[in-house]
């Protein structure tokens, strides 16, 4: 009996050493992810109204990603208050057919999840919580079943675009219902929001300051939405993680002594994103700040921000995955340097690359560099499925 137990323990130890991913708060370490943008058909799909072509394209790209060591895909499944999945509350996305609300003839997210899981890759559903349009404010141009067309009072406009109003109770309920529908009907491994909250630089009433009552109220409304989404995911008792990818700078040191030693755009003021509160209260399982700058950049040095975010998550259960910008040549050509910097900070548990097209095109050698790095990591292997089955 003791001999059998010893053998079993040995097998478990051997398997663990091969896995390459350790899960903390249901979020994996050694995550290598990629952002797959669908708005404007940036990354996918490149064809419309063609089921087989869309399926083949996704499989081909998935296999290329896997060969590069990518173990997690972050797919934009709700680009404009619509859906790349069958939903009872959000219309079909126009990126599939060219017409919002038109049934594409299959369920893309079901297909994408299965293909990802079949390859041992995690599938994170990327949602834009508030965006309704990228251009135009005429709700009659939305599909007839779009909630923003049915109830325009839920929206606000800014710079010729529509957004759900974060202050409306109906908006908060709708976002929570959207997340709940996904996690109940689809075996996703994670829910992810990016850096869009209030419209960027949405004006304050005359006489109000960026730290005044109205600005504070806006942050509280966003915080309330994040908390509610966190709660519905945790209450589901499914192994699904919740992550947010804010802009790379929370606050500059000039604005707040505890901010980063930078001088760039501040998400705390620009979109009313109080990421520190989300981390401190552990409403999110991971944060993936968009540190989209190069090393040595005076306004926002890469390592300065990695160190700052590492300190933010230290002592919490929140994992840190750095989001890298591959559409800028100066970053793409030094991706190996940035990954070496990440290794200096134990709080960094992985990276997510924006975006798939630039990665697969090997912009400035970034794909070649990533392949080489992952081949050199003897501990690397694809993740076991940590999310819902």
Notes on the protein architecture:
The structure is a single chain. It is built from 14 helices and twelve strands. It is of the alpha/beta class and 389 residues long. It folds into two domains: 22-126 and 167-376, Alpha-Beta Barrel (TIM Barrel); 131-165, no CATH class. Strands 3-4-5-8-9-10-11-12 form an eight-stranded parallel beta barrel, surrounded by four helices. α10 (302-313) links the parallel β10 and β11. The longest helix is centred in the middle third of the chain and has 23 residues, at 213-235. It is globular and about 50 Å long.
Helix-strand category: alpha/beta
Largest sheet: 8 strands, parallel, barrel
CATH superfamily of the largest domain: Glycosidases
What is the level 1 CATH name of the largest domain? Alpha Beta
| Termini Cα gap | 33 Å
What is the residue-averaged pLDDT?
91
Q: Choose one word for the global shape.
A: globular
Count every helix, treating DSSP H or I runs of 4 or more residues as helices.
14
Strand ordering within the main sheet? 3-4-5-8-9-10-11-12
Strand content: 5-15%
CATH architecture of the largest domain: Alpha-Beta Barrel
Tally of individual domains: 2
| CATH fold topology of the largest domain | TIM Barrel
**SSE string, helices as H and strands as E:** HEEEHEHHEHEEHEHEHHEHEHHEHH
Cα-atom Rg, whole angstroms?
21 Å
Unreliable stretches (pLDDT < 50, length at least 5) are 1-26, 384-389
